[in-house]
Structures
1.
Amino acid sequence: MALAAPALRRYLLLLAQEHLEFRLPEITSLLSLCGGQFSGEQEIRVNSPFWILNIPSEEMARGLMKRTVCAKSVFELWGHGRSAGELYASLKNYPVDKMLPYLQSGSTYKVHIHTFNKTLTQAQKIKKIDALEFLPFKGKVNLKNPQHIFWILEDYGVNPNNVPEEPNHLYFGRWIADGQRELIESYSVKKRHFIGNTSMDACLSFIMANHGRVKPNDVVYDPFVGTGGLLISSAHFGAYVCGTDIDYNTIHGLGKASRKNQKWRGPDENIRANLRQYGLEKYYLDALVADSSRPIWRKGMLFDAIITDPPYGIREAPRRMGSQKETVKSVERSTENHFFVSSSYHLSDIFFDLLKFAAEHLVMGGRLVYWLPIYRPEYTEEIIPRHPCLKLISNCEQIFSSHTSRRLITMEKVKEFKDQDENSYLLDGQYMPYRGHNSFREKYFSGVTKRIAKEEKDNQK
C-alpha cells in the first residue's frame, strides 16, 4: 500500500518589492531544490508582497529561507481575512492543538505588527495586539529575547497615492525564519576588490544562482566569466566554480583598472582574490583564457549549472578568435608578449553556441541561466533561442528603458545530447527570428540618441 503524502501546511511569505518578475521562478526553483513542489493552488498575487504557500514541513520552509534573496520572512499562517472580523474568525477556527506548543505557561513570546504601505502609531499597534486577547496565550511577554514571535501583517495595497483607511487583507502567523537579504549588502560590488564595467549586481547574482538551483558540491561554469561576480554567488552556496573569457587581461588581473582615480589593477584584483575576499577560495577551480565559440572541454556532461552574462555590445564588445587571414586592424595587444586576433561575434551566434554547449556539457537536470538583450518594440517569445535538449523554465524581464531590456532565461537539460542535435536549430526554420539580436547595439544607441535629442528639445522650450 502506498504511503500517504504528508499533509501540506500553510505558510505566509513576505517578499521584497523589487525584481517582481524574478520572485516566482526563484521560489519555485528553491522549493524543488528542497524536495517540494510548487502547487497550482497556491494563493499568489504576483505584485503583492504577501503570498500564501502550501509547504509540506517547517523544515522545508526553513530550507527555502536559507537561500532566497527575494523573500524577507516566512510565517506559519494561523489566520487571515479581508477584515479584522474575518481574521479573528479564521484564528478561532485554527486547530488549538497546533497553537498550544507555542503558548505554554513556561514560554515567552512577543507580537510584532508589520504594515505594508501604511504607518501606524504606537497606540494603534497596541490596540490591534490587545484585540487578540481571545487567543490562549499562557506564557510571558518578552520583547527582547522571546522564544516565539507572532506577527500581525496588514496589506494596504501597492499604490502609495491611494492608501485605504482599512487594510485590504490581514494575516496572523508564527515567525519561522528570515531570508538572505543581508547578502545583497555583504556582497555589494561597491566593496569588492576586483570589478569591471559589467560586474553583476549582488542581488541579481544570487537570484541567478537560485534560478540555477546551485547546491553544495555542484560544478558551476561561466563561459563569459569577466571578473567572476557570478562565480561568487554560486561558491557562497557551496559549489565549485570555474570560468573562461577571451580577455587575457581580465583573466589575469592585468591592465587598466575599472575604479575611478586608479590607473592600473593591483595584485589583489583578480578572480581568485575576489573569492578569497569572501572566504570562498576553496571553491575556486580556475579561470582560463578561451574563446566560447571554440570550446576547449572534452565531450561529455561536466557541469551541474552554467550561469553567465554574455556580452551584448553595450559596455563590452562580443568577440571571438579570428584567423590570421583577417585584417591586421583586428590584432589586439593583451600583454607585452601576448597577442590575439579577434573578429566580430554576432549575438545570435553567441546564444546558439551557448545553448549547444549547455546541451552537450550539462548533466541531466542541470540548468543554464543567462541574460538575453531585448529590443522591446520587436519582442515576441519566438525570439527566445531554443534547443531540443533544453526546456525553457522561466523568462523574466529587467527593463532598461522604454525600448530596451534584458531577460533572464532559465533552461533545464531534459534530453541527452546526440551528435545530430549539434545544429538542430538550423533544420526547423527557427533560426531567422533570433537574428534580430545582432542589431541590438544599433537599436540601443539609436534609442539613446533619440532620448538625448528629445531632452535637449524639451530644455529649450
Note: Confidence is low (pLDDT under 50) at residues 1-6, 323-337.
2.
Amino acid sequence: MCWAGRMMLGTFSILLVLVHAAAACDFGPFPYRATGIVCRMTKPAALLLNKETAQVIQAAFRNAKFPNITGERSMRLLGRVAYGLTNIQVNDLSIERSEVELKEDNAIHIAIKNVTALFKGTLTYGYSGAWFLQLFHSVDFEIESSIDLQLSIELTCQKDQVVPDASDCYLPFHKLTLHLQGDKQPGWLKQLFTDFISFTLKLVLKREVCKEINAVSQTLTNFILDLAANFVRDKDIIVDISLASDPVIEASYIESHHKGLVLYRNNSSVLTDSVFSPSLLTESRMLYFWLSEHSLSSLAAAAFLDGRLVLNLTGGKLQELFEMEDTEVQRKAVQMVFQGTSYNDSVAKVWSLTQPQIALQPEGTVVRSLVALEVSILPTGEEPLVALYMEKEIMVTIQATYVEKKLILQPVDSSAEIKVFKCTADPSGKDPSIQSFLQNMILVAGIPEVTSSIGSALTSLMNSKGLDLFDIINPEIIIRKGYVIVQLDFGFPSHLLLNFLEKSL
C-alpha cells in the first residue's frame, strides 16, 4: 500500500496509470503471469477524479499554440478577398460538466459538455475588383464558441507500462460567432468572414486542442509513472509493479494485476503462483489494493539483507523499557545489568539475526524471527562494555491500522523463548529472577516498542514519498490467509494537479 498515494495524482491520466497497459502487451507464459499485487479502482473513484478533468482541459486550451489562419476566395463584384487571423488566444474558458464511462473495449470515454471559450486575435483582410481600389484592413476580433469535447482514450502498452492514446478526439460545435472590433463593421462584412473562416477555424481548433490534450495526458502519465517508480524504490530495494497480465475493465471498475516482485541488488524474488480471485474485492469502496504474502515476505527479507532491522534505544526510551514496573525484582535487575551507570551512558541494540518469516492469517500478520538484544555501557573515555546479551526466538501476531496519516502496528499476541543469555553481573546465569524479569520485559514492553518503531519508520518512509499529501478516508487493512487487502476512499488534492500543470505546461 506504500505506493498508493502517488498513483492518485492526475485526472483521467490516473485512470490510465492504474490500469498500466493494454492487450498489446506480451506477458509470456506461466509463471511470469503470477500476480503479487492487484489494484482495483471503482466507478465512484473515477467520477471523483473526473471532476478534475476540467483542470486538464483548461490547461490544454490555454497551452495550445494556435497557428495563423489564412485563406482567400473570389467573390462576385468584390473580386479576390484574402484574410488572415493572427495572435489567436483563448480567454474566459468554462466547462459546464464532464462525464466518464469505463468501457470493456479497453478504453475510457470522457464527455466534456458545453465548453465555452472566447478566442481573441487580429483579422487582416484585403480585396480588389473592377469597381474598387485594392484595400487592406486590420481589426481585432472575438469569436464566441460553444463546444462539446468527446475523448476515447485507448490504452496501449510499452515495456509493461501504459501509454495513453487520446488521439480519438472529437469537437462538435454548438456555436461559433465572429465579432469584429466594436461590431462597427458592416453586417455583410462580418457575415462574409464568418462564412469564410468558420469551417477552417473549426478544423484548426480541433487539431490543436486535441493534439494538446494528448500531449498533456502523456506528460501527466509519464510524471505519474516516474512518481510511482520512485514510491516503490528505496535505495537498493525496489518493488516491480510492471504488469503481470492484461487489465480488466468493467463498467463499474478498473483492475490491474502487477508482478509485485521485490528486487534487491539485482536479485529478484520468485513468484510462481497467486491466490488472487476477483471475488476477493468488492465495489463498495473507491480504491482497493490486494497484496500477496509473498510480496510482503520478500520486502521483509530485503529489509533484513539491507541491515534495516536494527533498533537502538538510549536515554528515556531505554529507561521506559527497563522500568516498566516498579518492583524489587526490577530494581535488582536494573542494578545488576547497568551496574549503577546512567541510562544516558548506555545503549540497547535490538536486531534480527535471521530473516523474518511472515505468515498472513485472519488474526493478523504472524512474524517469526531469531532476535538479539545487547545492552552496552559506555564509560567515559573507555571502550563500550557489553553488560547483557540475549538471543530470543520471537513469534508475534501484529494487527495494522492507518489512522491520522500514521501506520500503527499493534502486537496482539506474542511469545519469546530465550536461546542465549549472557550477563556480566551474572556470568553463571543462575539467578532466575533476572531472566524472568527480562522475559517479561521483552513481552510487555520490548516487542510493543519494536513494532511501534517499525510502524513509525514505515510512516516516515511513506510520507517522504508524499503519501501524507493525500486525503485518505476510512482506510481498512484486512488480513486473510495468504493475502492482505487495503481498501479506502479518498479526496483528491486539487492543488497538486494545479501546481503540476503550472510548472510543466
Note: The two ends are 30 Å apart (CA to CA).
3.
Amino acid sequence: ICEVDNSRDAESEESEEEDLPEMDMIGIFSRCFQLSVPKLASRRQVVQELLTDLLQVSQNLFSDSFFPVLEPAIGVGCAFEGWSPQKSEDVVYCMFVPLKPPRGYSFHLEPDITWETPLQSMCLRVELVCTCTREQPDQEVLCLLHHSQEELRRNQVASLLHTLCTGPYLDGEKIALWFQTFVISAWSVVPQSRHYRMKVLPSRRSCKMELMKASGRSLPVELVFSVQQGDSDIFLSSQPAEAQFPPSTTWLESYAVAEAKFFRHISMQAPPHSCHLKCLRLCARLLEGSGLSVYALKTTVMHLLTLILLSEWQHRHLLMRTDDILRYLRCCLEEKRLQHFFFGNEGMPEEISLPLAFQRAQSLNLFQHLAQDPAAQTEALQVLDKL
C-alpha cells in the first residue's frame, strides 16, 4: 500500500546537528506527552512474581485432580510490550494463563459456526482418555472412561465435564468463577499478601484483581485463560474484545502472545534508546478520543518496524518516524485496507511461531468495514487530517 522512503534520513543527517529546533521539539513532546514509562518494568515484576506464586499454590492444591493444569503465565498487552497509551498508574497488567487438560482428559478444537466474528472462534471439546494401568496392575488408578459410575461416586471422583463444562465444551465463564474463588482462598498464603490488599473485581470471562498498598496506590491485574494452538504463538482466549458477547463456550483466536514476542524481538535488535515505543505511545496519545483504533495504530507500527531499517529508529528520528506512522495510517485509510500483521506477512521474524495456515493464508483486512461504510472512512480521514 505505502512506499517507505529511508533515503530522507540520510539526506538530513548533515544538517541534523544544526537543526536544534527539531531536537527542542522532541524534548517538548517527550515532556508534554510523558513518553517515558519507567514504572512499567518494576510493576511487571510484581505481577509476574504474584502469578508464579499463585500457580505454585494451584499445583499443590490441584495436582492429580480433574481441574485444568495451569501453565506458566505469559505477559501480554502494552504493559508487557514496553509502552502504554495511558498514564503508568492507569495501566492494566494482563497475563495469559494457558490451560492444559488434566490427566484423563484431552482438548479438541472445533470451529464454532454458531457465532459470527471477523476473528476465528473455536469450541474446546473435552473428551475422556483412558488411564487404566494394565502394564502396572499394582497401581490402582480409577479410569473415568472404564470404571463404573458407582465406583467413581464411592471414591468421590469428580469430573471436569460435570463442573467446568457446558455440555462437552469447556466453559470460559465457569473457568473464571473457579479461578476467582481459588485466588480469594489462596491469597493469605502468597507472599504478596504481606504488602498488598487484594480485591477480586467482577468479570465473567477472566480474573480481574486490584492490588492496593497501604499508601493507596493500586495495581490493576487481569488474568485471561487461554489454550495454545499446537506449539505456535497463537492462542485461543477466554476473554473477547470489547463489545463482543459470544457464548461462554466460544474461545476467540488471540495474537497477543505473538505481538508481545514481536516487540521483545525488536527491542533486542533495535539500537540503544530506540524511539519506536515512544512513537507508538505518542501516536496513541494523539489519537486518544478520536475513534481511531489503537490496535490499527499498533499494527501500523509493527509493519513499519519491518519496512524501515531499525537503525533509523534512533531517538533523534522520533518526529520523522511519528510522521511516517501517521502518513502510513492515512494511506491505509484512503485505500480502506490495513493488512493484519500475522497473516501472509513475508517480513515476519523467524522467532515468531505461527501455524502453517497463517503463512499460507490470504491477508486479513482490518479496514474491511470502511469499504462498506464510506461515511466512517470520511470521518476517520478528517480526524487524522486534524492531527
Note: Residues 24-254 form a domain with the Beta Polymerase; domain 2 fold (CATH 3.30.460.90).
